Amino acid sequence: MAVSQLVGARIHRREDPRLITGHGRYTDDLPHQGVVHLVVVRSPHAHARIRSISIDAAKKAPGVLAVYTAPDFKDIIAGPATFAVAPVFAPNKLTNPPRYPIAAKEVCYQGEPVAVVIAGERGQAADGAQLVDVDYEVLPAVMDIEAAAKPGSAKVHSDQPDNIAWDTTYVPWEATEEAFKTADVVVKERILQQRLSPNPMESRVVMAEYDSFDKRLTMWLSTQNPHWIRLFVAGALGMGEQAVRVISHDVGGGFGSKISPYPEDFIVPACAKLLDRPVKYTETRTEAMQNAYAGRGQIFDVEVAAKKDGTLLGMRVTQLLDAGAYMALFSAFQTCACLMAGGAYHWNAISSRSQAVLTNKIPTDPYRGAGRPEATHVAERMMDVLALELDMDPVELRRKNFIRKEEFPYTQNFGLTIDSGDYETTMDKALKIAGYDDLRKKQKEQRKHGKLVGIGLSTWIELCGLGPGAATGPATGGVVLSESAQVKIHPAGGVSIYVGTHNHGQGNDTTHAQIAADTLGIPMEQIDIRHGDTNEGPGFGYGTYGSRSLAVGGIAILRSCNKVIEKGKQVAAHLLEAAEEDIVFDHGKFHVKGAPDKSKALGEVAFAAYGQLPAGMEQGLEAVAYFEPPNFVWPFGTHICVVEVDAETGAVDIQKYVAVDDCGNVINPMIVAGQLHGGIAQGIAQALFEEMVYDDESGQLKSATFLDYAMLTANEMPEIQLDSTVTPSPTNDLGVKGIGEAGTIASTAAVINAICDALSPLGIKHVDMPATSDRLWLQMQRARGASSNGKEARK
Amino acid sequence: MIPAAFEYARASSVEEASKLLKTYGEDAKVLAGGHSLIPLMRLRLAQPKALVDINGIKDLDYIKEDGSKLRFGALTRHVTIEHSAVVKQKLPILAEVASEIGDNQVRNMGTIGGVVAHADAAGDYPTIALMLDAEIVTNRRTIAAKDFFKDIFTTPLAADEIVIEVVFPVANGPHKYIKFRRRLFDWAIVGAAAQKMNGGWRIGLTNVGPTPVRAKAVEEALHTGAKPEEAAQHASDGLNPSGDLRASPEYKKHLARVLTKRAIEQAE
Asked: How confident is the model at residue A331 (pLDDT cuts 50, 70, 90)?
């Protein structure tokens, strides 16, 4: 690369002025002539048989144009729409119930579509939906994953053999037998990961128009990956990809919930075809809370064997995962928690098993971090549980067992090769910033006065940048998660770059432009970065998830720019009457080696590229590049959290939060900081507040509004002290890693470890998430035993 | 997120509003700040046939000193109470309570009359009204706070009766309201109020039952010389709160005791 001008600079996100002044192009904002509105009639029950559906009253309601139920889609949506593909790391998929966009006989989660009402106005469609009368025979709702896993359990789908979605043992228990036999200490813990609602700011919107003469479908929707949606929708509707255009311009957040297709992604275009009118569906917030693919929902049983000097020997980890009513597209990715559970440490052996269980709930799917926050929580909680058992400082236990700088690339217990790292340096930097030794001294004093103050560490690592073909190809039925970019240099020097990744808050319009501007040696303003339209750019784009926009997408941009420069050298050689191999490109200019005065600017070369060229030279200055990463990238860091727990009320006050992270080379530090702030906020919210709570009997979602489902606001955020170290990734041309998920991956463990440390004088070793004041009070009451009000504590 | 269809009428006087309510009957609702009603309508949990908007009534937005009393027009917004010099001086606890209701948007729109008439057990003003023996004045009569909050969301108001004024006694002695919640803009999980008044203590509790609660047992104990910590043990006497996603009944009772103690100790 040329000498950096923009890469590494704190540049304001150039998409922000547009987005924050109301000039975004979110799907719901797009004007569309003649559009009619669709409202979905959803099952109020978690599990029921549909006896009959009466639509007569709804059809007669004012403004209602059509009411459709499952039979209406029989000829238009081919077979079970392929919602689920083979899981990533779970080859022995067992029960994978077929899923239709609209239920015909049985509903298996609250909110499953049973009918749609289409009207001229959205309010009329909502009124009509109230008049659809469905006669249900309520069936038992299977809500508890442990009970659902047992033989003889009530079934989530009455026509399926059982509720086991997959059951995979990666490494059998025998492999850790010796470690546990020779261990001085064994510690065990059960760690819960509650179900989370992803809650992007923009709920989903789907609009579709079908041109019945040309037989073309155009869809506008709020998704993280338009090309995949095109693939699925074209397949389900029996159309060629060339006839389906999917547009997803501005999207207000996804956090993973907008990766997999949803029923409406099929229903809306099908209705546009049936009615021969453009149709729009706008999800309400209630629908979003109930029916967006949920995150987490797992139980881990973990055992760790160690020597008394703290040397780690073995780990056994079982993941019990709440798959929900169906398997979502990437739900099996969450099993990576099992493969990552060893964290940043040396182990002789790790055994692991993942079992996914169907329940009568909306499916779970990747949510910011997806499997890696769970892995970090397992590894980092167990470090503190062991440290407490050994009466060792948690810092020293970590230091003793870290994979060392000189050992990278390091192949860990499950055969994954960690590309690079320097865990100790990063931890030491965080300890210094936090003033760890002083904090411990102060804590000793505070404890004497009955103050429950705790310090928690999370020395997290992450695998991201999905992903190498060897891992991702088999998972998708053959499509490798590489990434594409197309660079077009127009005759007057303007540059359009089409990327296959998606931008729904990551700031890619800025970081991608920084990379391209430096590579091409031109100002950012001359470059337009375009995403989210399947009719533009390369043949396929892979979307944005798993922190891949930079580490995979960014490299595709760099390489396509370099291809254009190579072509430009041919043109420049012609213009400068020199040999092509003597042309050097530097800072936006082509010049003859050794004669920088004899040069042509990129714009001049572009103009010439569209003019008269020597025989055999093609016109045009554009290129496409695909990048398949040879490995994942592996960012890491240390987060330190200091809390005080109110001894009387159980309320948690975060007093300090330090995060030192290493994501390799940084393109834009401001965007890295923003991603960390947001991720840490989400992690703190999981640690303290957020939880999807269902009624055990009826399966109704009880936490269905923002009153009960408590996301953090600015008021609850502590001040975050950020810093970094830089360990470039050796696996890509820019030395970059991902940072979009890191905050979420790191923070829950830091917060919970701090709370556990605070409560340790009471004999409390572990607390579950969310660590609400109610829950902590109860736990403190129990720990204190027979206090004056102890008898009132819940059983 | 789209309310069912309803009729809308804007009244310019109390008389007109009352007449409109009579015309529409039981299915009509009064629209003041709307910050409780509109969300319920958007979720279709409330589907009133008609809304009678009283925001056009000009003479219901006031704070008046009246000897040993402060009179609040029903349409007085939280933000007005929060910043009112006279309230800060004569009834500072109410200004403090107002400053902690919801967020800026809620405080700019929400009204004292609306909160009182809505009678949500988690509302803050009703606790202060009950604790201080406030009076609720309607277009027909004056009702003592202790007779007004009957049950959850239940008051003695007739279908065409409108709250026009809430009257508080002046109370500017040591006071404290502690609103325990997860997030700053949340409703109280439990709230506790303490006000020194006429040589004695008044103690009120929020969200520990279907109505606000006056903790007379605590007041008595303090009167007979008990220390705050001992007296506060009585805060949960007779309480039977229901649990919710944020707190079990036992935890609410525990909070009632702890917060009462803290409110008394921190009162200034």
From this structure: confident
